[in-house]
Amino acid sequence: PELSEEPPAEMVKMTKSKTFQAYLPNCHRTYSCIHCRAHLANHDELISKAMQFFFFMQSFQGSQGRAYLFNSVVNVGCGPAEERVLLTGLHAVADIYCENCKTTLGWKYEHAFESSQKYKEGKFIIELAHMIKDNGWE
């Protein structure tokens, strides 16, 4: 018998463009791309809400308004890192985009130059303008 390299059917779906798309479990609240509805993140991966009080009520801002900070995301591609001066100082960031529709969603923090911002390294910013809440929000 041949060994299959395909992921389990409940985790991915073949789309019309013949790319694979990860699906998060339906039992969890999720965030999806507002443009194509590809899953982006599980609510459990959201860290900005819980950490805002601890970090002096810091609100995350994207280039198009409010944004959320996530530990991990799915169905997202990453561009090259570049240094940018953001509201919280100099960071090396890489733009992230929806793998399904190619819309730029936000960025990934690759490196923080200030010690107070190190907690952001490896985390992802997604702008609210590009997300929609799915599965169990009321």
From TrEMBL:
Keywords: Metal-binding, Zinc. Residues 29-135 form the Yippee domain. GO terms for molecular function: metal ion binding. It holds the Pfam family Yippee-Mis18. PROSITE patterns: YIPPEE (PS51792). Signal peptide: none annotated. Belongs to the yippee family. This is Protein yippee-like. It comes from Cochlearius cochlearius. The gene is Ypel1.
